[in-house]
User: Fold this.
Amino acid sequence: MSAPTRILGIESSCDETAAAIVEDGRVIHSNVVASQETIHAKYGGVFPEVASRQHIVTIHAIVDEALKQAHLSLGDVDAIAVTRGPGLPGSLVVGINMAKGLALGSGKPLIGVNHLEGHLYSAWLARAGADPVPEPEFPLVVLIVSGGHTELILMRDHLTYERLGGTLDDAAGEAFDKVARLLDLGYPGGPAIQKSAQGGNPLTFKFPRAWLEGGWDFSFSGLKTAVLREVRGLEEKGKAIPAADMAASFQTAVVEVLVVKTIEAAKKFGAKGIIVAGGVSANSELRKAFGMRTLLPVHIPPLFLCTDNAAMIAGAGHFRFMKGQRDGLDFDALPNWPLTEV
Ligand code: KG4
Ligand code: ZN
Assistant:
């Protein structure tokens, strides 16, 4: 057996500063995340300028902590993987510059990783000491649902992606965030909607589902507008807004379209499994619905890996490292990097 490969991952694409050590793309030795959530909450969304400055303040300590928790020094890792994009330019460069500095100082290889690729490779990860998760079998249909992306992808093998479809307007997470703002539920919207929906009736409002028959695309802006219209209508009549019922009805509409279309795609392309990843995959209704509607293995990462973290970047970085990818010190951030162009 060959010696294990250990990758240091660094992530700073949005509002979490994160570093992690992952072995062989599967075992998490450390996973440190500093969330800026409370800082951005008062703006009701991520404030890019504030985010990048906060990354600068915390990133050194986060990388040190990830190494310390894994009982390793930089000399023990095989490569440094860092999120190259997509994300906020000013945030991405902080992680990239940190990784470049470490690579230059240590002579370790540097690997730029696509953030969405990171999200989907979290399906291979488990904490050291825990049972490994069942290994996803190809071909796979992958649904990535985050704050900035909704992508349906066919994966016939490691690191190869065929885009089946994606959102034509708002990302799923973005819809959660916007509707939460509309209902005054706070930020980030996903967890706030989920919590409020627990006390609501999902059948109260018949919000529209955009099926976009004949293709694999999604659309959430009509749903958002329907919620807005309902809220305005009630306000004009001087009626109270039943936020919990609205949250539940909205959540059910989003979940239904995501789950049904993903399972249809899996059938159509003969997938042996489904991966669901990205921040919205933390949603309890979405997780439940996938389990109930298909007999195929559905790989959804544990909650701590659904939202942004660096273990997923180290995980994807491992497969890129094994394939021979090495990036130079001159690579730039790619704020709009599609997964299909990696
Ligand atoms: O992947 P992520 O952490 O960051 C991006 O790469 O965008 O995803 C963040 C998104 C936000 O829109 C947030 O509202 C959503 O994921 N989210 C959720 C839940 N937890 C986070 N959406 C629905 N239900 C949740 N429980
Ligand atoms: Zn993300």
